[in-house]
Amino acid sequence: MARTLITGGLVVTAAEELEADVLIEGEKVAALALRGSDTARTWAESDAEIIDAADHYVVPGGVDGHTHMEMPFGGTHSSDTFETGTRAAAWGGTTTIVDFAIQRQGGSVRAGVEVWAAKAEGKCAIDYAFHAILSDVDDSSLKEMDTLVEEGITSFKLFMAYPGVFYSDDGRILRAMQRGAANGALTMVHAENGIAIDVLVEQALAEGRTDPRHHGEVRKALLESEATHRAIQLARVAGAPLYVVHVSAGEAVEEIARARDKGLNVFGETCPQYLFLSTDDLAGPGFEGAKYVCSTPLRPREHQEHLWRALRTDDLSVVSTDHCPFCFTGQKDLGLGDFSRIPNGMPGVEHRMDLLHQAVVEGRIGRRRWIELACATPARMFGMYPRKGTVAPGADADLVVYDPRAEQTISARTHHMNVDYSAYEGRDVTGRARTVLSRGRVIVDRGTYLGRPGHGSYVRRDTCGHLI
Ligand code: URP
Ligand code: ZN
Ligand code: ZN
Ligand code: ZN
Predict the structure, then answer these.
(1) What Enzyme Commission number does this protein have (predicted)?
(2) 393 C-alpha to center of ligand 3: Å?
(3) How many Cβ atoms sit within 10 Å of the Cβ of residue 140?
(4) Which of 30, 161, 212, 234 could bridge across to 25 with cysteines, CB 3.0–4.6 Å?
(5) Which ligand lies nearest the alpha carbon of 344?
């Protein structure tokens, strides 16, 4: 079995920081040994291949629990395939994604999962798993949930937004939550009052307010917090754990914090776009704002402080990307003259680890919290821990040798995502993945890509109830 030794680095996990060497055997972490220990000396003299991590961190590969590769939306598809999107993720030090398989209205949940499995099979550079989106909750889809949970699809997303597309009414959401409470699945909710938003969209368009910035104005923070509150109450009635995706409004954070103060199993996720971007971007000149159209929408800048605070207090527990890229030319421009036709979503899978590390550099969060938010908690929440999300004996050797001092300027000219713009164009960040390993194989090293499509394998996930 191939043996690799990562020496000289500072191992950072959600739990601790250790000056330790990491021994990899095959696809797994075999053991850690404190620097200078007899064990470390013995390893250094063995025939293991050495990766020098002096002056670097050794961290678990990122776990991005929210991506949309090749997702159909608004008459087009998100522009990253599983091949291009997972390669870009690898460049940025993310080694596992959980993507959303969509049940078509009138179709079965399983059929949706099969379509997504076929898109991903043989294509991924890194490991991948699926949540299922329930677009049509009825007796048969509820029954399907049970078998899917047994097969490793242990979380289901429901939409309070997008009437006529993915939307479920409260009764359907309640039924899915009840089923999840019984079978151990985690219910994820996109919390925005889509019915009310559609009224405001219609009024805005009728009044000639058609620019991208109106996307943010009609999708009001109050309609996010109202839906978040409602989702929490439905989850309480069902006795189900709840995971609120892509939280952007300070008022929605308050709802989650209040629920958590009561001791409820309610968890919140946010994304880098809500932490670093704002309605100022959405109000860019000409049609530029279309680059920043996503739902929930970007908020006025003052919301950011609420999100950062909640990341420190654990009222927000996970940072995922909601990576859902559409090219500016040829896709976003479907909404020229009508913001409601702009495909919703933004690119980000490549830069999550670095943007969050920037928060470490700026003193907003600590190093261990960085790893907790980006690796450990998503792995735990979605039933993959400790195989993913930590550096420990028996874990998959998904590891990143991270250079905390590397300077980079984010740009579409240098990124690897298949999209013609960067939401962070020109932004300077400190820190970058130098060497990335996926299940023991080096897939990125010092600016060279060494991975291949099909190396990534499907991860069957455990249920989440036991951890919460
Ligand atoms: O704008 C977004 N977030 N697009 C992806 C679909 C979703 O709601 O997560
Ligand atoms: Zn959503
Ligand atoms: Zn999403
Ligand atoms: Zn779990």
Answers:
(1) 3.5.2.2
(2) 33
(3) 11
(4) 30
(5) 1
pLDDT tens digits along 48-88? 999 999 999 999 999 999 999 999 998 999 999 999 999 99
Q: What is the pLDDT of residues 226-285, one digit of tens each?
A: 999 999 999 999 999 999 999 999 999 999 999 999 999 999 999 999 999 999 999 999
Please answer whether residues 293 and 344 qualify as being in contact, where contact means their C-beta atoms are separated by less than 8 angstroms: yes
- Looking at residue 375, the DSSP 8-state letter turns out to be I
- Residue 464's pLDDT band (cuts 50, 70, 90): confident
Q: Give, using CA atoms, the residue closest to atom 2 of ligand 1.
A: 345
Ligand 3 centroid vs 55 CA: distance in angstroms? 36
Site to substitute for ligand 1 among 155, 321, 324, most atoms within 8 A of C-beta: 324
What pLDDT does residue 74 have?
Answer: 86
Residues in the chain: 468
Map out the domains of the chain with their CATH numbers: 61-386 (3.20.20.140)
Report the pocket of ligand 1 as residue ranges, CB < 6 Å.
Answer: 68, 190, 246, 294-295, 322, 324, 344-345
